[in-house]
Structure formats: structure tokens, C-alpha cells
């Protein structure tokens, strides 16, 4: 009985085993395709390929090659599908099972898509009977055959240029010179001269000359020089053994005048590459490093063209293109800047530390944005030595520091705004004169040692708004501030944009502030704030902008720098009544005619404006440094407002020193 039972069990197991569904070719293909879509090449090779395939293609040919191609070709969004067989499909283990597959993917050179038949064969392997896939390189790309190689070529896109409002290039794709040495012709005694001219060192030149590939008669690159410096090139070429080749190079035609605005490009850093590699950057790319070159990188940078080709192993066959994407050049970005006005403004400052901004009062367009002194961005393109960079860093005038992005105490240039706020609040009557005597004043003894000082105690009484402007009387404005109260002054300044970001697209500018915390804590601070001292700070572009309502009858426009941005956008409105604006304009004209900006009192170019001096005195100092200001506009046809600040003018005649610089700009703008 036991034998009969045992035999019955064995027969039953054999019967059940025969009844179990073996994996069908479709099921095996579905598994294979699933691993393919995931990039599980090792699993595909180990578990799914026929013995013949494995014999023909070692694991490296299948696994490592496809893994490397996925990375090198930027393959993504891989989607492999197959055409399902009919429900009544039957499979003969002695015959291959054939399906149609579709392969779709994205590559660096664009999309690739192809259809192809695929076969599975039934094989017994290690006591396992199953269906296995036949494979060859054509399943990577249809025209790929054993022995062929896949190549990737890149066509560099042109970087977009930056142009001013008239289309004049201020950052362009120009040419320069690659300077090199032909070793067999070199005068060894002149290496130091070459190094000095190129801003490098003799040691660096030796490193280039000692490279493994160098031969006596070959041109060995050692540096670059800009096309705009022909004298340097001429000096270099006079040295035996030195030669030059013209190469493409970024050029900044206006040099230092626009340096802090344009910035410059340079080689991509390892840190930048790590962040931007998914955007197609490579270690050989140039990228914006400062200024608009950096801030507009996405618009200026083009998309390189890419081409994937199969180089055939068989001699005489042309390469096969798998995918190709044409290069897309970067965008040319047009600014509202007037490059010539910018240069004249920069030159007028004569290398003095300071900043200037000019705006169109009717549109808000930024016409000039200057930081003085500055560096020459072309030096960074040709290659700046460490010694030269340290020289710029250690220069006491800090040419690498962007002053138009900062904010400074505006001094008396804020007085027209204080007046406008008081007039609107009804606490300041422009015609009412105050009797003010002496050089200093304080409200009462509660102020302790604090007193308000004025520069011109000789101003004749009574002091009305016009005389207060002409003589820049701090005591008058302090008393008017006390009359309106701190809440009214703070709220009025906020309406002029203090304490909020400057809405200038593409630039990062420090906001103006009433104080460090946005409030005024004492009557002394209230007095100081009324004439632009205390903790008040103003950005130079904002300072130019807040004079707009005086010319527009109450409207301040949003500053714009990009020409394609809508101009005339209202930033603030209703700031000054038109009649009061006209009256303030009259006082600003009188500041130049009768006041202390006589260097701007040109007979043939009528100018209106307000001077200012901001004292920067540390505790315990009798006398500190002074920054001089002049905010001005053409009195008869106010087509622009120019705000200019120069540091450390205490020994140069005060704010009139700045007025003389501004007058040069007005003379240029008037065409006289």
C-alpha cells in the first residue's frame, strides 16, 4: 500500500508540474523591456540573453558600453515598448518568437526613435528551460554594427551680445590675439619682458614650453591680449620668437566706464559646474562671472549644437548621423543705457571714488549707472595674473567695489523731498519765513549736547523755502521736520519708496532706508533725517528716481534697464501736487543761479539741482570724511535726471566739486 501511495504522489507531482504555466516569450520580453527601461543592463545580460549572444558580445560590450553611452550621450526618458501578440498566439519552442519593439529616447542631440523586430529563443541553461533574447549593437542604434564607434561633436553657439539703447555693443563677440612662442626662435633673455606684458610669470611660461607635446618649431600658446591694446601686441611681436594668432574673444569696448554694469565672463568654476551640469555646461565653457554677464546668463548663453554619429568600421563608408541639433545663439539683450552718456559721466568723475545714475523722468528708463573707479573687464578676458588682481584688491580706491549697488547717506539732496512731504502734510508753507539766527540751534535743553548746525549762518532772514534751499539751511529743515512729526516724515519717505526693494529687473541694488529699523526714535534723529543724515541711506539710482515727481507733477516711474521692458510703469503717484512741484523746480533752479553750485551755473546750459554733503564722522572725531552730491537736470528741457556722488570731497571745495563734474555731463548732453 505504501508503494502504491508513493507512486501515486509522484505521478501527481509530475502531472501538476506539467500543468504549471511556463513563462511565455511575451512574459520574458516584458521582463526584459522593464529592465531595459530602468537601465538594468547587468541584469539583462546575466538573465535574459541567449548563449550565442553572450559568446559574441562580452559583458563589457553590452553592460559597460551602454552605461557609458547613457551618460555620455545624455540619454533620458528612455521608453521601450513592444507590440503585444494576439490572444490566440501559440509558441513553438523549436522556433524563435518574434515581436516588434519601439525605442524612444532623448539625447544631447535631440530625440531618437526607431522600430525594430526582436527575437527570443527557447534554450535550456543550468537545468532551466526558458526564453532568451537575441541581441546585437543595432538595439542601441539601428545602424550600429560590431566594430563601429559612436562619436559626439559639438558646435559652439555664439554668446548673445549686450547693446545700449542705440544698438551700440557694450559686450560683444569680437576678436583678440592668442600670443605664443616658437621655442627655437625665442630670445631666452626676454622671458621676463614677455611675462610682464602678458601679466604672467617666467615660471608659467616655462611650464607651457616644457609640455610633453612641445617641439622647437611649434607655436606654444602662453597668453592672450585684447585687440583694443595694439601697443602691447606690437611690443610683444618685437621680441624674437613671439608670434600671435587672431582668435574669437569677448570684448568690452567701453572698458572701465561700463565694467560694473556689464561685468565679464570667465571659465566656469568646479562649483558652478557641479550646480549647472544638468543645464549642459561642460568644464571648457565660459560663463558670466559678474554684472549683467552673470545676471543675464540664461538669456545670453546659447544652446550648443550637438551631433551623434556612428563611425563605421568598414573602410569607405560615410558616418551615419543618429541625431543632430543645430546650435541656437544667445539672445542679444538691449539696454536702456546710453553708452556715450555713461562714458562721459564716468570720465567726468576723473577716477574719483563715487557713483552716478541717470534716469529719464518721463519713462523711468535708466540712462547711466556708474561706479568709479572701475577695472577693465578686458583684462579678465585675456587672463589676469594673481599679482594684478591683488593690485586691484589693494587699491585704496577699491575699483572692484560696485558703488551703484550700495546705499549712502544722501545729505542735503534729500531736502526737496522733505519739503514735498511737509507741503503735502500742510505743515510747511513755502512762502512763510522763519527767523533763524546763529550757526547752531536746538529745540530746548532736553536735547543735551546735540545741536543742529548750518554752513551758512549769513543767510538773510526771514528764511522761506527758497532761501532754505539756496543756502541749504539744515536748521530750517530740522524745524520743519519737528513741525510735521516723525510719523508724517517716515510715512512720506515710505511713499517715495524708502524701505522697499528697488524694482529694477536684472540688477541687485541695496534698498534705501529711513533708518536701521525703519523708524525714528528721537527728535534729534528726526532733525538729522530731514537733511539726509542720521541713519538714512539712499541708493544712487533711487536718489535720481525720487526727483522724478518734481518734474512729472507727482509721479515716480519704476526704473527700467532692459529695453524690451515696458517703460512708463508707475511706481508711485500722487506724491506732489503739480503746482507745488513747479514751485520746488523754481527753488532748484535758484540753487544753481544764486546758491553754492556755481560750477554748474553755465551761461549756455541752464541747470537746476540740489547739492548735498554727507558727513561721515566717527565718535570722538572733530572732523570726518565728507561725500559730496549733486542731483541735477536740464532746467528748460528736463530730459534726464543725473544723481552724482563723490567720496572724500572735504578738501576739494565741497559739493561744488561734484557740480563741476555734473556740468560736464550736461554740456555733453546739450551738444554744446
TrEMBL record:
InterPro entries to which the protein is assigned, alphabetical: Beta-lactam/transpept, Beta-lactam/transpept-like, MecA_N, NTF2-like_dom_sf, PBP_dimer, PBP_dimer_sf, PCN-bd_Tpept
Any matching Pfam family: MecA_N
GO molecular function annotations of the record: glycosyltransferase activity; penicillin binding; peptidoglycan L,D-transpeptidase activity
Domain NTF2-like N-terminal transpeptidase: residue ranges: 24-147
GO cellular component, one term: plasma membrane
Domain Penicillin-binding protein dimerisation: start-end pairs: 155-313
UniProt feature coiled coil, ranges: none
Keywords recorded for this protein, A-Z: Glycosyltransferase, Membrane, Transferase
Highest taxon of source: Bacteria
Name of the top EC class for this enzyme: transferase
EC number(s) given by UniProt: 2.4.1.129
Record-level GO BP terms: cell wall organization; response to antibiotic
Domain Penicillin-binding protein transpeptidase: 354-664
Subcellular location: Membrane
Family: Belongs to the transpeptidase family.
Protein name: Peptidoglycan synthase FtsI
Taxonomic lineage of the native organism: Bacteria, Bacillati, Bacillota, Bacilli, Bacillales
The encoding gene: ftsI
